[in-house]
């Protein structure tokens, strides 16, 4: 460790605290130790001192080691916790270990303390490294999954556009020619065919746009979202508003830009299919250290506590989670829905 080891010691006997410090110094440990004697000082030190390791006597006035351990974990501090006490039953020692303590040392055997401290720190580092590796692996899996999804969607979109749409366009051309040479009754039937073919072509065009990942190179996220809204199907009968006043500088990460684009796309489809909304708004807001995207509708709403969540919402959570972002859903029956995502930025 490049810096001094920060040790928080819960101990109400000065002589015992000094003895512990002396044993650690003798073992050539370099440390900064803070001794506290009661609950309030202990809680303050957890928050302000941010210890690397915690040593705790078992019994203090109106406070004990098990309570100290519970407070430590409730505060979200996962530093190793070692019980250092004069007397304690075997049952109690086992119970503290089960609650998450790293070890326990009797005061008449303090020569074991330096090794216990080092072992606890080594174990903690190993656990942190394993957690980091798991996190990297999860991110790799998620990234691969998203890439595969995007490739599949793009392939489907190209097939629809390049093959089916061209066939329908040729059919329409032949119908146009035939319509000029037939009598009135045939013209009416052919006219219906033309209208149906036009509708099918428009549906395929919209589907192609939704499936193929947009090329955002050189295009700002705000511009891409504006284009998405301008091309949104009129049949959806949804009034849309885009506010980018607080998006004053485009982000450089193409992955985040595509994620935000897809989130808007997915959520608007959710609104059209399920919310029965008349209007929806999208607000894009950038600060130096984070990007915030808010999508709000005036639809039927729902109770988030009871809703299990469909593929759309899970897809959004997975995409945002890949960038260590947060997703918040605020809704109630009859009060519409607000989806807010926040993604940290590196600058």
Task: Report what the structure shows.
By secondary structure, the chain is of the alpha/beta class. It has helices at 14-26, 39-48, 65-74, 90-99, 113-179, 184-211, 221-230, 254-275, 311-322, and strands spanning 5-10, 31-36, 53-56, 59-60, 63-64, 81-85, 103-106, 239-246, 279-287, 290-297, 326-331, 337-344. Helices cover 52% and strands 20% of the residues. The strands form 3 sheets. A 5-stranded parallel beta sheet has the order 2-1-3-6-7, sandwiched between helices. Strands 8-9-10-12-11 form a 5-stranded mixed beta sheet, with helices on one face. Helix 8 (254-275) links the parallel strand 8 and strand 9. Helix 5 (113-179) packs antiparallel against helix 6 (184-211) and helix 8 runs antiparallel to helix 9 (311-322). The radius of gyration is 32 Å and the shape is elongated. It starts with a strand and ends with a strand.
Strand percentage, roughly? Answer: 15-25%
How far apart are the first and last residues' alpha carbons, in Å?
Answer: 29 Å
Query: What is the tally of beta strands?
Result: 12
Spatial order of the strands in the main sheet? 2-1-3-6-7
CATH architecture grouping of the largest domain: 3-Layer(aba) Sandwich
Indicate the multimeric state: single chain
